[in-house]
Amino acid sequence: MTDLNRGNRPLSPHLTIYRPQWTSMTSIFTRITGNALLVTSLLVVWWFAAAAAGPDAFATADGFLTSWFGDLVMFFSVAGLWYHSLAGLRHLIWDQGYLLEVDRVETTGQAIVLISVLLTIFTAIVL
User: Fold this and answer.
1) 51-86: per-residue pLDDT in tens?
2) Which residues contact 55 (CB under 8 A, 6 or more apart)?
3) Structure pTM?
């Protein structure tokens, strides 16, 4: 039978009432950084292909990647690389059955955010 009371049922969970949690946000951000790193790798491949294509193509690609916008993209790419790597390590630890308690999951989520920020700043200063 079809449900005749379909309009009277509440929506669950709706964005206006759902409180984001560390576990959901770190999972979403891991997926976002993975896709962003794909775009960054395409930019690096473009730079190498332009270097092989000749001086004019290389000047265009290098000009883009060394501009203020390219520097900003590469800075956030380093941040994404650190975050995505640390989140991957956390998943490997989870696969072994460790740190699966709710409080430890939230603590490790906060830790990977903090550590990735610190490593990004360290990488930008040193390199």
Assistant:
1) 999 999 999 999 999 999 999 999 999 999 999 999
2) none
3) 0.83
